[in-house]
Design goal:
globular, mainly beta, Jelly Rolls, single chain, 5-stranded antiparallel beta sheet, 4-stranded antiparallel beta sheet, about 50% strand
Length: about 110
């Protein structure tokens, strides 16, 4: 079976998404699964206190926390998410992410058009 859209992931195989990225001390590790003009799917593993500073996206971005705890700022709001929780960061609104403790997430971005 060939796969031209998904990459860096086995297909037709049950997997744990959290197991596909590993924590590394003092770093943010990422693994891109899909990247095109319509959608982006990326797995991330953040060590404690690692962060992505405030920025905006051209698409709506959904964070699904797979492990650990994160502090996510969206506009003027601040949210603390744990494994199993999800939040959508709307397009054009500044947002930032910080690891309260090591955490893993799946980031899905849907671009307009």
């Amino acid at each position: 079976m060939t796969n031209k859209i998904m990459k860096n992931i086995d297909i037709a195989t049950p997997l744990s998404l959290a197991a596909l990225v590993t924590y590394q001390e003092g770093q943010i590790v990422s693994r891109t699964l899909v990247q095109n003009r319509s959608v982006s799917l990326t797995l991330f593993a953040f060590d404690t206190n690692e962060e992505i500073s405030s920025h905006e996206s051209k698409g709506d971005a959904m964070v699904q926390v797979l492990d650990g705890k994160a502090k996510i700022s969206i506009g003027d709001g601040v949210y603390f998410l744990s494994a199993g929780e999800t939040v959508v960061m709307p397009a054009g609104v500044p947002h930032a992410l910080e690891a309260v403790e090591p955490f893993k997430m799946l980031l899905t971005v849907i671009f307009p058009g």
